[in-house]
């Protein structure tokens, strides 16, 4: 038998879904309009920029992003065609590939990061007190941990 969400749970769930959708839309538009890159581009570029200097294996990059392999593969192919990332076959595993930033990719993330951070601060953190930011960090951490457990075991 289905255990339906309470009114408060429905309100929280719908609010969370609406918030994430709005943030992705607004932040994606800001990055596209100001820097010519998508939010997905920014996420990949940021992970590669902050990763080890010799690049990241595709599977490790996908894991840090929480993306399915097909989504990552299509995204990396588009970025490679645009000259933002480069691919190198993995010497230790013929099935694997390592990706790293090109000079154009490094320039793109370094130019976009300050404006993106300012947009995030304006849209999210300026509306919250320090205590609310702490609570938000705790809640998101707890939910991510729970999702990881559920995904690993297949049950809640």
Strand content: 5-15%
User: Mean of residue pLDDT?
Assistant: 93
Radius of gyration: 18 Å
Q: At the fourth CATH level, what is the homologous superfamily of the largest domain? A: Winged helix-like DNA-binding domain superfamily/Winged helix DNA-binding domain
Q: Please, how many helices?
A: 6
Shape: globular
The amount of helix comes to: 55-70%
Determine and state the CATH class of the largest domain.
Mainly Alpha
How many individual β-strands?
3
Element pattern in H and E: HHEHHEEHH
CATH architecture of the largest domain: Orthogonal Bundle
Question: Largest sheet, if any?
Answer: 3 strands, antiparallel
Q: Tell me the distance between the termini.
A: 16 Å
Please state how the strands of the largest beta sheet are arranged side by side: 1-3-2
- Within the CATH hierarchy, at the fold level, what is the topology of the largest domain? Arc Repressor Mutant, subunit A
Low-confidence stretches: none
The total number of structural domains is: 2
Index terms:
single chain; 156 residues; mainly alpha; Arc Repressor Mutant, subunit A; 2 domains; globular
How does this structure look, described?
With 156 residues, this protein is mainly α. The protein has 2 domains: 19-123, Orthogonal Bundle (Arc Repressor Mutant, subunit A), CATH 1.10.10; 129-156. Helix content is 69%, strand content 8%. It has helices at residues 7-35, 39-50, 58-65, 69-81, 103-123, 130-153; strands spanning 56-57, 85-89, 97-101. It has a 3-stranded antiparallel beta sheet with strand order 1-3-2. A hairpin with a 7-residue loop joins strand 2 (85-89) and strand 3 (97-101).
